[in-house]
Amino acid sequence: MKCVHWMYCCLAIVVIAASAHGATFFVDAGAGSDSNAGTAAAKPFLAIQKAIDEAALRPGPDLIQIAEGEYRENLTISDADGLTLSGSSGVIVVAANASDDVIKNILG
């Protein structure tokens, strides 16, 4: 099973963004819901991919704040405006599909 520990792969999943950012999204594996707006810490998304997809729809470089927890996802980053994923050392991303990469950047 492929597993990524946040503090060891931070650089691998961050697409470099300018210091200013467009929108900030929040993700929480324990308290989130993908039916939330995800734009407030009190109403976070459940899935990191949901936040990535929403960020790609908005102009400007975006920020995703990820709460401590385990996330079973294969992430695809496709935000040409720039995207920063940020979280504590307690964030773990485990591939939902073990035969695929945990993180894919599909920007060429």
Outline the secondary-structure elements.
Blueprint (H helix, E strand, L loop, with lengths): L2 E3 H8 L10 E4 L20 H9 L5 E5 L2 E4 L2 E3 L5 E5 L3 E4 L8 E3 L3
Parallel strand pairs: 2-3, 3-6, 4-7, 5-8
Antiparallel strand pairs: 1-7
Keyword list:
8 strands, three-stranded mixed beta sheet, 2 helices, three-stranded parallel beta sheet, alpha/beta, 16% helix, globular, 108 residues
Number of domains: 1
Radius of gyration: 13 Å
Gap from first CA to last CA: 27 Å
Largest sheet: 3 strands, mixed
Total helical elements: 2
Polypeptide structure, described:
The chain has helices spanning 6-13, 48-56, and strands spanning 3-5, 24-27, 62-66, 69-72, 75-77, 83-87, 91-94, 103-105. The longest helix has 9 residues, at 48-56. It has 108 residues and is of the alpha/beta class. It has one domain (3-105). 16% of the residues lie in helices and 29% in strands. The strands form three sheets. A three-stranded mixed sheet has the order 1-7-4. The chain has a three-stranded parallel sheet with strand order 2-3-6. It is globular and about 30 Å long.
